[in-house]
Every structure is written in C-alpha cells, then in structure tokens.
Amino acid sequence: MTTFAELGVDQDIVDVLASKGIVDAFPIQEQTIPLGLPGQDIIGQAKTGTGKTFGFGIPVVQRLGPNPEPGVKALIVVPTRELAVQVYEDMDMLTSGRSTSVVAIYGGKAYEGQIDQLKAGAQIVVGTPGRLIDLNNQRLLDLSSAVEVVLDEADKMLDLGFLADIEKIFTKVAPVRHTQLFSATMPGPIVALARRFMSNPIHIRATDPDEGLTQANIQHLVYRAHSLDKDEVIARILQADERGKTVIFTRTKRAAQRLSDELGDRGFNTASVHGDMSQEARERSMAAFKAGKKDVLIATDVAARGIDVDDVTHVINHTIPDDEKTYLHRAGRTGRAGKTGIAVTFVDWDDLHKWALINRALDFGQPEPTETYSSSPHLFTDLNIPEGTKGRLTTAPRAQAAETSKPRSDSGSAENGGRRRRSRPEQSAREPQPIAEHGGATVAAPEGAGTHDGGGSEHHDGNAAPRRRRRRRGGARTGGGAPAA
DNA sequence: AAAAAAT
C-alpha cells in the first residue's frame, strides 16, 4: 500500500484525509494521482467502489494551488443530481484545509444559492449538464477559465442522452486544459470518442484484464422471476439476518414508487428515489438512507451510478437491467471499499435474453438458463456472505432440478410465507428459482437445507414485518422449459 | 424503451 503523501499529495490534503481515517491509497489512486498531478490527461477505469473520485479529485484540488483566484477553474460533470451532491461533498472535504471553494450546480433547486456561490468566486464547480448550460447561457457561469475538466461516469456522459450537452460544454471550457474521464465501464467506441476532447490521454485500467469487470467481493445470484411473487421474496430477503442496507432497483419510476409503498406497508423502513419525486424529497431520501434512518432504498437507475453509501450489503434487481454496464453499476452499490456484498437479480420471463446478454458480456460463464429447481424458503435467511468469494458462476445443482416442471400449485402459498415446507419441486411455483450463482458459495442448499429449519426458533421469522397480503396480478404461468432467447 | 438532465 502506498500512502497519499508518498504519491506527492500536499500535506494539508493528506491531513484532511487522515482526519477521516484515510491513509492508504487504492490502486486507481496510486496510478492516476502521480499522472494527474503534473497534468496528464487521463481516462481512468477502475471497478466500482475503488476510489475513483479521489483519483481525479485530489489532482484537481492540488493543481489549483492553495490560494486560487476567485472564479471557476475546475469543472466536474456528473450524470445525476445526487451524484453532484456526493462529489461536491468529497471535493468540499478535500479543500477544507485551503481557501478553495466548491459549488454544486444542478437542477430541481433554487437558482439563488448557486448563483450567489458563483458570484462569491467559487473555483470548483460540480454539476449536471442541464443547469450548467442553463447558467452558462444566462452568463452567470463563466467556464472559459475552467482549466481542469472532469467527466465522472464518463461513458454515461458521452452516451446519446448526454453527448450533445457535453459537446456544448467542451466548447465553453478553456481550450488548453487538463481533462480527466473516469468510469468503471469504458467501452472501446466511447474511449475513441472521448479522445476528441482530450490531448494524448493515457488510458489507465486499475484492473487485471483477465479479471474482468466484476467485483470479486460481490456475490451474484440470479433467479427466474416468472411464477414468483417478487414482492414476497424481496420481503423475505429483507428479513434475512446479516443484512445491512439494501438498494432495490426497478425499471420504471412507477414501479419504484409502488414497491416502496408496498414494502413500507409491510413495515419496512423504506425510502425511494426516482425522477418523479421533487428534488427535495429525493435528497431527503438519500440523506435518510446514508444516515441509516432508512435501510431500504428503492430506486430507478438514477441511483445506479456512483452513489456511495456505507454498509450496503444487498443490491436487489427487482427488474433485470437492460445491459451489462447498468448491471455492473447497480451491483456496484454494494461491495465497496473492500467490503463484501450480494447482488440478487430477478429475471422475468420476457427478459431472459437480457440475462443471456449480461451473462455473456460479464463472462459469468453460465450456460443459458434452461433449468429450474426449487430451493429453500429459508434461502435468504441462510445467506452468509463468503469472504473474498470469487470465480465463475456455478451450474445450478441438478439434484433438485425440476426437469419436468409441474404446473404451479396455486393455492394460498403466500398464506404462510416462508413457513412452507421446502425442497419439493411440486411446491416450487412461488419460491425463488435460482438459475445461477456467481461467487463460489452454494447458497441454495437443496439437500441439506434442514439444518437451518428452526421451526420458529429464528429471530427473523416474519413477525418483523406486519403481513398484509395483496395479490399481484395473476401471473400463473407454467414454468420450466427453455424459453426462446 | 426507460431513465436521466433546465424551467
């Protein structure tokens, strides 16, 4: 491990970091800080939760000098308002030992405070594209002296939805500048595109290419979700012991709101964040989740990237994301800074092709999911997060495979929830059907599951949450056969 | 096709 001081970081910054208990640099920081400090353009790629923000942030602060003149010298562009707040806080911390001031510029908030801070001479601007351009158009934000430019989540910023804004912003900043692009995911075509805005950039990958992009300390579980009551299964996951905070991702804003209400009704401590909420409510949710006042956050992909919350042990994909990049970023809300985490994904019938895509792109090595098997209703209460788990997806245990899947028994299976007898294919219809695991540990214990059957001895036996059954739409499908991909 | 991002 290298210390920040050894990397050439100024003493006041070293002191500030030390006061937060941060002494050793992460690999991406070891690699990019010595290059960023003298002004090398960088495309920095490192896995989720491994310290990219300081990788670009420290050189930005240091290069402005201890007493920069008033006026915008540095611009950091991010894809969401919440990430703007977070990066603002990090930069504010890094600059706390010097006179440099930082301002967050993003929409959904009053103009006044932001404009005041700009007029007061803020040197570092962290913002989202819309409001940045808005204020620039109003001549309230002069970017012409911005000599430090960073795109955080750079591949997202250069994506179609943002590219025009980013191109415009690059016409406004200083032509001779230091430019840094950071992300966990940097597809080749995006790197090629990025070079247009940079000068002789060096591409730093703080990962072993053979290792792929997935975090070794995140265990990935994938379940077929058809004929599965996802609300019920998610409720069970939330009752598992050894759970810290949990982020649940949905595909749509409406689904996020519905699930948040539903789990809230069931007695869980939920908060939500999505684009249909007021900015004030969004920030209240994030603050409560970070502070631990709420331990379940239901979110759209607005929270998929960059958001750093301590002690998130579980990420649940209520709906599988569309592509491997989003999968990686969502899962990356857990397993940060060396900790372990679990990512659980539910794959709906119509989405099996997305799983195939992700499976292939992330090299999970799992064959197409053509089998189902029933698993313990205690599956999620038995989860232990294995240390340093790593490796390819293991094939689903065949012993339990229900090759001839029966029509689901559709009696009141939810009635006794997790109390049902288990390990019977006949009863599997509404139980989680794992199709893959990544991480090495066998989590579903089809044969030996009995050891955990406490017959009521468990402390997580459902009473934690008031039960209130509400049937989701019919959804009776006969499971089993290999779906057409 | 959804979500995000200005009002």
TrEMBL record:
Ranges annotated as biased composition (Basic residues): 466-475
Pfam families found in the cross-reference section: DEAD, Helicase_C
Positions with biased composition (Gly residues): 476-485
The keyword Transmembrane helix belongs to this UniProt entry's keyword annotation: no
CDD domains: DEADc, SF2_C_DEAD
Annotated PROSITE patterns: DEAD_ATP_HELICASE (PS00039), HELICASE_ATP_BIND_1 (PS51192), HELICASE_CTER (PS51194)
Name of this chain's protein: RNA helicase
EC code: 3.6.4.13
GO biological process, one term: response to cold
Key words of the record: ATP-binding, Helicase, Hydrolase, Nucleotide-binding
Residue span of region Disordered: 368-485
Biased composition (Polar residues): 369-378
EC category: hydrolase
Domain Helicase ATP-binding span(s) in chain numbering: 33-204
PANTHER family: ATP-DEPENDENT RNA HELICASE DEAD, DEAD-BOX ATP-DEPENDENT RNA HELICASE 47, MITOCHONDRIAL
Family per record: Belongs to the DEAD box helicase family.
Coiled-coil segments: none
Stored SMART domains: DEXDc, HELICc
GO CC annotations on file: cytosol; ribosome
Molecular functions per Gene Ontology: ATP binding; hydrolase activity; RNA helicase activity; RNA strand annealing activity
Protein's organism: Microbacterium hatanonis
Residues annotated as domain Helicase C-terminal: 232-384
Gene3D superfamilies: P-loop containing nucleotide triphosphate hydrolases (3.40.50.300)
InterPro entries linked: DEAD/DEAH_box_helicase_dom (IPR011545), DEAD/DEAH_RhlB (IPR044742), DEAD_box_RNA_helicases (IPR050547), Helicase_ATP-bd (IPR014001), Helicase_C-like (IPR001650), P-loop_NTPase (IPR027417), RNA-helicase_DEAD-box_CS (IPR000629)
